[in-house]
Specification:
CATH superfamily: Ribonuclease Inhibitor
CATH architecture: Alpha-Beta Horseshoe
Strand content: 5-15%
Strand order of the largest sheet: 1-2-3-4-5-6-7-8
Order of helices and strands: HEHEEEEEEHE
Structural class: alpha/beta
Shape: globular
Number of strands: 8
CATH class: Alpha Beta
Length: 191
């Protein structure tokens, strides 16, 4: 019995270290009448939203927010009140710029923002000090700001679906050797 308890404790520790959590992700229609302080994970994915509902602003305890596959072109400032937010998924939206408000959200650890339309990342991205994973898949990024290399907790960056020269790829691999970079095969292009 004691050995079973030790095994369970070990499994829980491994689970936590791997970044997995047991946060339940609710759908928007499930939380409309819920107490906001009891909701830590929320999905508004695939709702064809052009803007986020104002009612979302009361869910300030969210740790995970899934907004993928909508039509969002910008994000509201009330997201700055989401001090606990660690994970946000904005894949397949219509963002023409990387949301600068993220630079003020110090607890973000994972940002999935691939398949959008912006071409640059702001210098202030280095302010997201806890960032571990950044997914920019199939977003037409032309370069990375120098401040990017100050993201000391970063362990993975997905830049697949974007054409970069072998020089660009090797340069960033040397600058940030601890990062797991995902690139497509290099092109004979300038960037």
């Amino acid at each position: 019995m004691k050995s079973l308890f030790v095994i369970i404790l070990l499994m829980v520790s491994i689970f936590r270290l791997s970044g997995q959590t047991d946060i339940k992700i609710y759908k928007w229609d499930e939380v409309l009448f819920a107490s906001p302080d009891t909701i830590y994970g929320l999905s508004l994915a695939k709702l064809k939203l052009k803007s986020l509902p104002k009612e979302l602003s009361k869910f300030i305890y969210l740790k995970k927010l899934d907004l993928k596959k909508n039509r969002l072109a910008q994000l509201p400032d009330f997201l700055l009140d989401f001090d606990s937010l660690e994970f946000i998924d904005l894949e397949k939206n219509q963002l023409n710029y990387f949301p600068v408000i993220f630079c003020q959200m110090s607890n973000l650890k994972q940002i999935l923002i691939g398949n959008n339309f912006f071409e640059t990342l702001p210098e202030c991205i280095s302010n997201i000090e806890k960032l571990k994973f950044l997914d920019l898949y199939d977003t037409p990024i032309k370069s990375l700001p120098n401040s990017f290399q100050r993201l000391n907790n970063l362990y993975k960056v997905d830049l697949s679906g974007i054409k970069f020269s072998s020089e660009f790829q090797e340069n960033w691999k040397k600058r940030m050797p601890k990062v797991n970079w995902e690139f497509d095969p290099p092109c004979a292009c300038m960037r």
